[in-house]
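Sequence, please.
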């Protein structure tokens, strides 16, 4: 009889731990799922992209330029904007060089 109790206690403890974990996961999912579902950005008729979301028509560069001063939205807005400016200048220089090489080869 004592052997049965010795086996029953750890098995019961394991079952309780698993059930409590399962219940906690379900509660978290229902609470956070309900909070996520009720955000204004996801409700029908709500103003789209009101929570610093990038619109489908907007490039990443435009999004960064629009929100570069907002902490937490972009990693380092000043650096990213500077990089975008340098890339744009480099693209212009490459286009000019291509035009010059195309004009000189004619």
């Amino acid at each position: 009889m004592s052997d049965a109790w010795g086996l029953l206690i750890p098995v019961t403890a394991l079952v309780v731990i698993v059930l409590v974990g399962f219940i906690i996961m379900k509660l978290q999912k229902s609470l956070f799922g309900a909070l996520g579902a009720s955000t204004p950005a996801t409700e029908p008729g709500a103003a789209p992209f009101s929570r610093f979301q990038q619109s489908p028509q907007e490039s990443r560069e435009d999004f960064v330029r629009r929100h570069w001063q907002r902490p937490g939205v972009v990693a380092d807005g000043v650096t990213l904007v500077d990089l975008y400016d340098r890339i744009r200048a480099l693209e212009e220089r490459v286009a000019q060089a291509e035009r010059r090489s195309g004009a000189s080869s004619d």
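The radius of gyration is 29 Å.
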